[in-house]
């Protein structure tokens, strides 16, 4: 029976030991820990995996260290790796990023995943490093040869944290977490940085700014754009929105994030502004076959009245995150409110080949129908070999779900897992 299998297999590829743990899950569901990072080959993979045209999975780890336990500080090659892993767990480090002050322009400490471009090359972003130490866009071959594409300098954006989107005519689209027009309301110096951009870039490395955020229309986009069936780009900002014009007593804005649309002519419109009670910090966004948008907020949702009179720190929401839907006509609804017992703090979300939605929370892998029926497929525990401080999810050509966790695993440095589901 699939739900009673419990065995450990050990493989060796060159000098890399691959530790595979297969553990029980819900009946008909099999969780397999394909690989645990050791520190020297990476720590904290945070972006989603990519299944390339060769069938292998590719991704990036944020850091590396001197020893296999993640200790000893960072060496010259301490700022992340690009890796390849087969669906059976055979792992290879393809490239390493050099020190943060490296002048070759490759970048450092990626928080995103890769995309595949022409000729089998891959493209990615880093939020640090590069010529101006404000992030880069790079190209890497399937053999691990890194090539510089562009550096961010502030005027064209800073600190990209999301994967790129490959659009028509080999144009790539992305977002930067910071640097747009100055804020419309002065704040304390430590908060006085810009609000982010949406950009396009061609394979020659020429960056064009499409949208500059200004808090009123959103700020700090840190998730990947999607291209809708109508040709528009859709995305989210982690904060900002119209509520920015009503700052709190400590001077911080009250905008809780937005969902936005960018037309082919560059015109941007805001579809929804989050206010806490309908969610905070929208992230993953997907589109279903009927044109509806589905997404998650990492916290917030529902109304909190229990502590209204207790202190100035009272928050008007009580939820632990949401799943929401926006119809093509613009109608917004919350499909799932996370309250802890059914999971909390969702952090990745995809549309499965069967038409269902799959995602991860701080402690679970879940399945959800488009009407909001939620099923927990697997609950993470440290003892099962992995525990997600932050996790990602994708579906392979074989129908299995693959993902990464940024914490724990055999060596406490993060892991790569597979979840198989019987139909």
Describe this structure in words.
The protein has 423 residues and is mainly beta. 0% of the residues lie in helices and 39% in strands. The chain has no helices and 31 strands. It has a 6-stranded antiparallel sheet, with no helix packed on it. Strands 4, 5, 6, 7 and 8 form a 5-stranded antiparallel sheet that branches. The two termini are 15 Å apart.
Mean pLDDT: 81
Tell me the fraction of residues in β-strands, as a range: 35-45%
Strand line-up of the largest beta sheet: 1-2-3-31-30-29
Spans with pLDDT under 50 lasting ≥5 residues? 1-20, 67-77, 180-192, 244-253, 307-314
- What fraction, in percent, of the residue positions are helical? under 10%
- The oligomeric state of the chains shown is single chain
Distance from N terminus to C terminus (CA atoms, Å) equals: 15 Å
How many H/I helices? 0
The whole-angstrom Rg is 21 Å
Q: What form results from the Cα inertia axes?
A: globular
Number of β-strand runs: 31
Report the structural category. Answer: mainly beta
**Biggest β-sheet strands, sense, barrel:** 6 strands, antiparallel
